[in-house]
Each structure stands twice: as structure tokens, then as C-alpha cells.
Amino acid sequence: MSAATTVNGTGRNGRRGRKEPSPWTSRAVVHAMLGIAALYSVLPLVWLVTSSTKSLGEFSTTSAFEFADWNLPANLRALFSEADGVFLAWTRNSVLYAGVGAVLGALICTACGYAVAKLEFPGRRTLFAVTLTGVLVPTTALALPLYLMASELRLVDTFWAVFLPLLTNPFGVYLARVYAEAAVPDEALEAARIDGSGELRTFFRVALPMMRPGFVTIILFQFVQIWNNFFLPLVMLTDPRLFPLSLGLYQWSTRVSQFPQYNPLVITGSLLAVFPIIVAFLVLQRQWRSGLTAGSVK
Questions:
Q1: What is the pLDDT of residues 23-54, one digit of tens each?
Q2: Strand, helix or coil at 298?
Q3: Closest Cα to residue 265, out of 90, 84, 81, 92?
Q4: What are the residue ranges spanned by the domains of the chain?
Q5: What pLDDT, in 10s, does the model give residues 146-156?
Q6: Pick the CATH number of 80-297 from 1.10.3720.10, 3.40.50.720, 3.40.50.300, 3.30.830.10
Q7: What segment(s) does the record annotate as region Disordered (predicted)?
Q8: What's the rounded Cα separation, in Å, for the pair 131 and 126?
């Protein structure tokens, strides 16, 4: 009887001690919050789509999310013909800055992170601590020192003044170091060295394929950061032909109050500037998933 009482008491106490789930963690509430966050992210893009189809006069006669007469082809023609097609030059510059810079920058960050994680050399921990300190420094605080260095090297108002500083990213080095420690076993590196492979070959033939998901992640972060980069080109460049899309569209937006005809150009250009980021994410996402599942069947 005492045993039964103990069992029953334990059951009652267990039920009493069990914490009731919070209503804020229910599936419906979580889905509702995710839906609100998705709307918050998508609505600006929807506004760009609807506004890019409007003429100048229809901005004041239609609501924000209302489609008007289909003026998108006319807006595109005006966009590409403005200032002798300077928008195409801005697009080319952004592709070079972000595309080439993302790949080279990610490769440099991955190599640095791998070296800090897997190679023994004096000052390794100190170097990594300094790298973490660089993560805490805002990029705007580095603009003036970078400008002074570029001025000494006579690189101001050139392509290299914007391209070269974007090749390093302390956060990318940190991600690569963390991923190298988790994804690259020391035994694989030792086996490659026993077979006569040098450090550089070991990195490219053994470590880098294992780090592919992390490498793709760094590329994506680098691409988005460089594509949206604004302050560094603003400090370094004065030639409109060297502007990226972000700075060029900003220059046009400052003229809207005096020249309203720039309003459709800025909106249509902003819509086109979003698509490369979407394409980059969709393309790299496939590589990301294939890299994550590559070793699941071994």
C-alpha cells in the first residue's frame, strides 16, 4: 500500500512539477510571428515591383502597393539611357567588386582560418585574438585610415581603392577557423603529408573540399556585404564611372527633390539591384546543401 501510495504520489507530484508550455511557444504563435517577419522583409520588395511599373505622375495618383499602367519598359529604357548608360557601368563595377571580391576574399579568409586552426606557428593564438578584435571594429571607423593609405599609394579614385580593402574580412576568418576545426580531421592532413603533399597542396586538395559549406557561406556573406557597400566607395571615389550601384543610385536619389524625373529611375534601378543577391543566394544554396550532405552516406 505504501508502495502504491508512493507511486501514485510520485505520479501526482510529477504531473504537478511538470511545467506547462508557454502560449508564446505554441506552433500557431510561432508561425504567426514568422509570417509577420516574412511580410516585413517582403513588403519593401513588393513596393519596388509595383512602383517600378508607374510613370512619374502615377506616384501621386495611386497607392503604394497598387499596380498602375505598365510603364516598366519605358522606365527601363530611361534607366539604361540616362547619362550615356552610366547605370550599366555601375552594374559592371558592382559585379567586379562583389563577384570577384567575394571569391578572392572568401579564399583568403578560408586559408587564414585553416592556418590558424590546423597549423602550428608562434603567435597563433595572439593572431586569432587580434582577428577577433577586428570583428568588433566598425567598418566606418576604418574608412579614414584606408583613405590615407590609398592616398599615399596614389590609389584614390581608382578601382583598386575600393577592391583591395574588401578582400579581407575578420568575421570570415573567424568562421573559417571554426569550420576548419570541426570539419577537417587531423588524420586526413597527416595522411596527406605522409604521402608527400606540401602544405599548399594539402589545403587545396584535402582541406578546402571538406570546408566547402563554410567556404560557400563566407562567399555569400562577402558578396552581400560588398554588393551593399556604400561608405567606402563614397570616401574613395569621385569618378561616376567607377561608382557601384549603391553609390550611384544614392547620387540620383539626392536629385529627386529638384529633378522628380529621377524618382522612377531610382526605384527601377533599386529593383534591378536586388536580383543579383537573390540569384547568388539561390545558386550558392545548392552548393551549400550538397556540401553538407556529401559525407552523410560514408
A1: 666 778 888 898 999 888 888 888 888 888 88
A2: coil
A3: 81
A4: 80-297
A5: 999 999 999 99
A6: 1.10.3720.10
A7: 1-23
A8: 9
